[in-house]
Design goal:
The chain is built from 8 helices and 17 strands. The chain is α+β, with helices and mostly antiparallel strands. It has a single domain, classed as 60s Ribosomal Protein L30, Chain: A, CATH 3.30.1330. It has a 6-stranded mixed sheet with strand order 6-7-8-11-9-10. A 6-stranded mixed sheet has the order 12-13-14-17-15-16, covered by helices on one side. It has a 5-stranded mixed sheet with strand order 1-2-5-3-4. α4 crosses α6 and α7 packs parallel to α8. The longest helix is centred in the first third of the chain and has 19 residues.
Length: 381
């Protein structure tokens, strides 16, 4: 992959999905970096024939969110008016100031944006309704209390579409400021909340990433983005595990799924949680060796995919998190050779929940695995 930009597609007769990963070039100030990234982003959209309505999701990873946020917000107002925009303080590990991941659905006449608010985007595609939600905090408190606030806000937002956290939340991305000090409070609050609403090891959890990252306000100890989908039959959702390779997360007292598959009548989406170098007993493998950890992480991701009808070539985007950005060079060289060439990915600075984990990788895959009992992803409305 070109380390500064790449995109992938999943095409079929009803709708196409496009994922983009762009990192700004080194040696530019922030305004120059932003113009560099947005310019190349627009070039790809023109090249691929993608219009504004196809734009669904963008996440900006910034090297200095406190100083850069006002400049970014003043530049992307048109994007925020039409799409879901997430902004996180996670410096690109390869030396630029901005890393961008973006997602488009190209389905003229088959997709309708129902509602756009500062914190949500709701999209109707056939009988399905997907909603992206940003967690909203009312006041600065501990990571434990903020986690309670964020999930209460999430439950309120999705209830407008008759959705619940138990039945409809497919994926969460949780960012924790100073993760070594604040992660446990988030984990404890999430576990308590899940017990109350029926998310347990006997039912299921939610695919998730919990990683170090800074929210838009310095008082935000916890930030969260979520994806909710309504219109699915319960049988369309599969909670993925590979116990021969990775233990269940509840074995070490955390509460998320390793991955989740959503199957439609014409494809399947795979939401791969943040994955690290772990074995079936829950041990951290290869302490102090980031390359060996990267190798094992890819083995674990491949195991999750292969057991449920997908391959590494089906990956459409990856986000790589490094605890120590000084290792970005060797990790970059390894991944350039280890990953299929068609996968776009970005690499950012983000400490993992356990200090000895030096790298974590999350991703989204799409395969042709389908169940014709159900409507396609974007069938005619």
């Amino acid at each position: 992959m070109n380390q500064n930009m790449c995109f992938s597609r999943f095409d079929n007769s009803n709708s196409n999905e496009v994922f983009l990963a762009i990192e700004s070039k080194q040696g530019l100030n922030f305004s120059q970096s932003l113009q560099n990234v947005l310019g190349r982003y627009k070039e790809v959209l023109q090249q691929e024939g993608l219009d504004d309505n196809s734009e669904i999701f963008l996440r900006f990873h910034l090297s200095d969110i406190t100083n850069q946020l006002p400049i970014l917000k003043g530049t992307i107002q048109d994007i925020e008016d039409r799409s879901f925009v997430s902004i996180i303080g996670q410096p690109p590990a390869r030396g630029g100031k901005i890393a961008l991941e973006a997602y488009h659905i190209d389905a003229p006449g088959r997709l309708r944006k129902l509602e756009r608010t500062p914190n949500t985007l709701t999209v109707r595609h056939g009988n399905y309704c997907s909603q992206w939600i940003k967690g909203q905090l009312a006041r600065p408190e501990s990571s434990y209390q903020q986690t309670h606030q964020i999930f209460a806000h999430l439950a309120s937002e999705i209830s407008k579409y008759d959705a619940t956290i138990l039945d409809n939340i497919i994926r969460t991305w949780i960012y924790v400021r100073d993760i070594d000090n604040n992660y446990q409070g988030m984990v404890d609050a999430r576990r308590e909340l899940f017990d109350i609403i029926g998310l347990t090891k006997g039912t299921h959890y939610i695919a998730s990433t919990g990683i170090e990252g800074l929210g838009c306000n310095v008082s935000d100890l916890v930030s969260m983005d979520s994806l909710s989908i309504t219109g699915l039959a319960p049988e369309q959702i599969t909670f993925i595990n590979a116990p021969e390779y990775l233990c269940p997360t509840y074995d070490y007292n955390v509460t998320f799924e390793r991955a989740t598959r959503v199957t439609y009548g014409d494809r399947s989406h795979y939401y791969i949680s943040g994955t690290a170098s772990i074995d079936r007993e829950g041990n951290i493998l290869h302490p102090e060796n980031v390359i060996k950890q990267a190798e094992r992480t890819l083995v674990n991701i491949e195991a999750l995919l292969q057991k449920y009808g997908a391959e590494m070539n089906d990956l459409k985007i990856l986000v790589v998190y490094l605890r120590d950005p000084s290792e970005a060079g060797i990790v970059n060289n390894f991944l350039q050779n280890a990953l299929p060439k068609n996968i776009p990915w970005i690499m950012v600075r983000g400490a993992v929940c356990r200090p000895q984990w030096l790298i974590e990788i999350e991703g989204i895959a799409i395969s042709k695995f389908a169940d014709y009992r159900y409507e396609s992803f974007c069938h005619s409305m």
